[in-house]
Amino acid sequence: MTINSNSRVKQRLSVREQDARIAWLLVTPSLLVILGVTLWPIISTFVLSFFVAPTGINQVRTFVGFGNYLEMLRDPAFWETIKRTLYFTAVSVGLELILGLAIAQLIHSRPWGWKFLRFSLIIPWAVPTIVNGAMWRWIYSADFGALNGILFQLGLIEHYVPWLTLSGAAMNLVILADLWHTVPFVALILQAALAALPEELNEAAAVDGANAFQRFWHIRLPLLRPAILVALIIRTVEAFRVFDIVYIITSGGPASKTITISYLTYLYSFSYGKQGTGAALSFLISICTIILAILYIRFLYRPEETQS
Amino acid sequence: MRYRKFLRELVLFLLTIPVLLFIFFPVLWLFSASLSTQVELFTVPPHWIPAHPTFQNYLDIIFPGQAASSVPRTFGVALVNSIKIASAVTLICIVLGSLAAYALVRIPFKFNLHIQIGILGTRMIPEISLIIPLFIFASRLNLINKPIVLIITYMSFALPYAIWMMAAFFQTVPIELEDAARLDGCSRLGILFRVVMPISVPGLISTTMFVFLVAWDEFFYALIFTSTLAAKTAPVAIAEFIGRFAVNINGMMAGGILAAVPPVLLALIFQRYIVSGLTAGAVKG
User: Fold this and answer.
1) Residue B129 falls within a domain, yes or no?
2) Which terminus has fewer CB within 10 Å in chain A: N or C?
3) Least CB-CB distance to A144: which of B12, B44, B131?
4) In terms of domains, do A302 and A198 share one?
5) How many structural domains comprise chain A?
6) What is the CATH number of the domain that holds A127?
7) Number of domain units in chain B
8) How far from the centroid of its chain's Cα atoms is residue A191's Cα?
9) Taking CB atoms and an 8 Å cutoff, what residues of chain A touch B107?
10) What distance in Å separates residue A1's CA from the closest CA in chain B?
């Protein structure tokens, strides 16, 4: 008997141990891959940022401490780039949220054809970023583009305009192209969140005499806070590191007017042959991204308010 | 009252029109360009609907045998590369990711929480912060211009993404089911494969779709790591041609449409999984 119960205890203990062993078995393959393709490179990038490292495999590296960082911080072009990147991020994310929320609310109001509208939003969301960029570049084309075509036929311009070479317009045109792809994403998230909200509150408020705008502002918007937060974090982090769409539409031009921080990093690392500086810049981007995410969560995530 | 209701319906409907125009105008213009001949494309003002529509641009890409220009040939190969690479990445991520996700969600073990936070953290790291060491490493091993280098490096964003999404789905599986299976003498792995996985099929579909989409969409790694036909993906092919004016733009537009078809079709077919995927992948973060 005693032997029996003893072995049962042993068995029960070993179930936990066995579980832990199985857990490691399940986690280890992923962990090894992630360590190999993210942890090791990010540490490597950090180390590299303290060296002058010409592009190439067997180049000699010289330790410069914080030299690469200081060089950047002293360079006015760097601050210009930061400003430009923040402009892109603020304008595109701001507009995405406003338009996305408006479209989500529009779908939620169930106008005629709302299912088709929701269905349609999926298309721009799913079109690859590079295809989207190429499409808009062709729309903006100075010689045969659709934008010029429309404005010309409407009589708004007398001659075709080389839009992407106008230094004031280029960045905004890139933002417009980006919006085509990202507004649907935000709209889809917020629409789903709206659909999941309890209707009772809304109806109660309507009975109490609140108008549509008040109901939206005082009831739906606070309840939507978590969904808005999610969209905001994802989009800000992505917008801050924007590269693809800039590369394809303007390649940084005209006269560097659309060079963003990621693009500058790309140039340093792969065109200017200064990988140490590129590493320093890319490490700064990572830090900024993480700070942004933490700030947002601090400011916007107040769980007690989101409970209904 | 009825009049007011009608007015409301009308205003709402009128509001949907600019949204639909904004969505469809660019795509239709792209489509129209892909059906045009070079001559018709280069007209001022533009022919909105081609007078002589032709599917030649598509045929040249799908059957690149006797195509005159290098654009369709490149696109044909690049699309196949994209399919291979995105499929391989998706398969690996689903297998490794769902195993890891299950352990992280349901098995208490030392460092479980640390690993979860670490995985969330890696989702914040941009590709550009990883590219230089990866590039040096790939050059040393002679992996540049080979599909395998993209399959490996895509793991850096696709695998944490897959783990995080699958974890969110596994969390919704009622724990009572697992306890019941356990009482019936089912082992941990038995529970995972016979109880949890079958229930999580919608989650698996959703994750598969999302991972495929992000892998298909990826541009930066592909730009840095590939330049020859051996591994070049569709986005790189598009980027390569867009800057050159002499290149046949209509062929490129057809290539763009073809590159957009797989993700758009996937998304439309699995429409009902998108929202659950967006929220599962996101709300948890």
Assistant:
1) yes
2) N
3) B44
4) yes
5) 2
6) 1.10.3720.10
7) 1
8) 19
9) 19-20, 22-23, 26
10) 23
Weakest-pLDDT range from A17-31, A50-64, A111-125, B254-268? A50-64
Q: Is A52 helix (H, G, I), strand (E, B) or coil?
A: strand
Query: Which residue in this structure is represented by tokens 């140039």?
Result: A267
pLDDT digit string (tens) for A74-86?
999 999 999 999 9
Position B226 in a domain: yes
Q: Does B79 touch chain A (CB under 8 A)?
A: no
Please tell me which of the candidates A22, A121, A131 has its beta carbon nearest to residue B188: A22
Q: Is residue B4 situated within a structural domain? A: no
Q: Do A19 and A149 lie in a common domain? A: no
Q: Which of A12, A17, A26, A140 to mutate to test the interface with B (most CBs of B within 10 A)?
A: A26
Identify whether residues A27 and A94 lie together within a single domain: no
Q: Are residues A110 and A255 in the same domain?
A: yes
| pLDDT at B50 (0 to 100) | 86
Q: What is the gyration radius of the CA atoms in chain A, in angstroms?
A: 26
Peptide bond into B45 cis (omega under 30): yes
User: Does the distance separating the beta carbons of A136 and B274 come in below 8 Å?
Assistant: no
**pLDDT for A2:** 46
Residues of chain A with C-beta less than 8 angstroms from the C-beta of B123: none
Closest C-alpha among B107, B227, B236 to residue B167: B107
Rounded Cα distance between A262 and B223, Å, is 14
Per-residue pLDDT averaged across A105-123, rounded? Answer: 92
Chain A residues within an 8 Å CB radius of B178 = none
Strand, helix or coil for residue A162: coil
Strand partners, A52: A62
CB B139 within 8 A of CB B223: no
Residue A166 lies in a domain: yes
pTM above 0.95, yes or no: no
Calculate ∠ Cα A140-B232-B30, nearest 5°: 25
Closest CA to B105 of A293, A26, A12: A26
Q: How far is A30 from chain B (nearest CA, A)?
A: 6
- Full domain range(s) for residue B229: 69-283
Cβ contact (<8 Å) for B260 and A275?
no
Report the CATH number at residue B249.
1.10.3720.10
Specify if B32 maps to a domain.
no
User: Do A102 and A216 belong together in one domain?
Assistant: yes
The reply to whether A11 and A102 lie within a common domain is no
Residue B37 · residue B234 · CB < 8 Å: no
Percent composition of chain A: helix, strand, coil (DSSP 3-state, to 5): 75, 0, 20
Residue A35 shares a structural domain with residue A78: no
Q: Which helix (H) or strand (E) holds A268?
A: none
Mark out the alpha helices in chain B (DSSP H runs). Answer: 2-34, 38-41, 56-62, 70-106, 112-122, 131-140, 147-171, 175-183, 188-190, 197-199, 201-217, 220-225, 234-242, 249-269, 271-283
